[in-house]
Amino acid sequence: MSDAPRPRNFLAEIVEADLAAGRNGGRVVTRFPPEPNGYLHIGHSKSILLNFGLARAYGGRTHLRFDDTNPVTEDTEYVEAIQQDVRWLGGDWGGHLYFASDFFDRMYACAERLVGEGLAYVDTQSQDAIREQRGSFDRPGVNSPFRDRPAAENLDLLRRMKAGEFPDGAAVLRAKIDMSHPNVLMRDPLLYRVRHARHHRTGDAWCIYPMYDFAHPLEDACEGVTHSICTLEFESNRELYDWVLDHTGPWDPRPRQYEFARLALGYTVMSKRKLLRLVNERRVSGWDDPRMPTVAGMRRRGVTPEALRDFADLIGVAKNNSLVDIGKLEFAIRADLERRSPRAMAVVHPLAVSIENWPAGKVEELDLPWWPGEPERGGSRKVPFGGELFIERDDFALDPPKDWKRLAPGREVRLAGAYVIRCDDVVRGPGGEVRALRCTYDSASRTGEGATRRAGGTLHWVHAHLSVPAEVRMYDRLFAVEQPDAEEDFIAALNPGSLAVAKGARVEPALRDALPGSRYQFLRQG
Predict the structure, then answer these.
(1) Does the residue 518 lie in any domain?
(2) How far apart are alpha carbons 180 and 188 in whole angstroms?
(3) How far apart are CA 346 and CA 462, in angstroms?
(4) Is there a domain that residue 2 lies in?
(5) Is residue 489 part of a domain?
(6) Residues with catalytic annotation?
(7) What pLDDT was estimated at residue 5?
(8) Residue ranges of the chain with pLDDT lower than 50?
(9) Does pTM top 0.70 for this prediction?
(10) What is the pLDDT of residue 450?
(11) How far is CA 298 from the centre of its chain?
């Protein structure tokens, strides 16, 4: 048995009860089954962490399986991106990478078996007619006129479908269950449809493809999955899941489906269709835009797998759907980055400062710790200080409010890790705008050298010439309302200020060679 921490939720209780009862031969096999028609988002991350975490905690394994039954929307780009995301989140499927297409032959054999046993038939009506005949929640369905075709005729039609004799939409294979069933999904559901489209793995080998509700349980069974964990919208599908397995078995182990609440997050949309629209309409820069709720977008923004795990632990595993406050995600991200990000200095909107009494041409190398609040963590870097500096434009006020603790005419501040300076003069443009400050410094006030000189506040800064130009992108929530899905068109709810770009920013020279994926907290900027 694994020594991984045991999760505490209703799904863990189900697994423990199965193990105690000796079900499934003591095996625990879960799976994460994405459809390769888009990038994974934060809702998928919750499912990934849940499935892999449960199996790891109980000595089992988790499969990564691509549910590639719709060749029209699927692409190898998505297959590769999903694998990268799952690995990044800590998912290790070992040698258990599967595709629904791995089992197309076995699925088709199951379909022929159902036809032979009188449990499925080929329907050649239009899709509209079939939809109308299925009825509704308050109206029973009506039998198809082809429901009682002889098994031999149905088998011939199914084989002709497979051979490509029918155009798209001309014929479907349906299960024969009950057209008056209270669960509308059980009213002779579709099992196969004709789709003449090239598949990303099987090419043109097939022109009929299984429907999700037929393929999914068979994939689980073929792989030996024990606990098929889905989100709540599939609760009504469980009856059909069981019907398929009960009429195509016996299976050992026999998979069982369990549902938990999907993640609904404020100020976010997580429909792949809507996310794809954002990408296609260039509302964002791509699937990995840092404003997107995709795993790739969050990774590019600097979020860590540990932060997403902390978030998943914070919200838990529920049985009922609810809207999660996005503040909980932001809290988990901030708390994680706070403890892992060294501090550095960057000036986003520079205001020039000249120190008039600084020796001409002198550059002083200050040794500043990466962790000023926790010097015991160690590490420092050299930061150049000189007579020409930049401070943040918002850190100066011509007419400061009463409680102002930053720079103003005649006021003093400490520059972080350096000296106390006083603003003596303001250089203004023809329109009265502030263009630069002329200051003096106290040479005996350097931080850490026994200086006792106090100042109104402490500002961050960079050297005007030795700092590094940078483009700083400041991200806000992508949507301006908490529930964009509730809007008539979710596009109208986009936040026009979700991205602000500062092209003239400057960062300290130590960041010049920062590696991709490095994380820093800019002093006072976050």
Answers:
(1) no
(2) 10
(3) 7
(4) no
(5) no
(6) 35, 262, 272
(7) 65
(8) 1
(9) yes
(10) 62
(11) 6
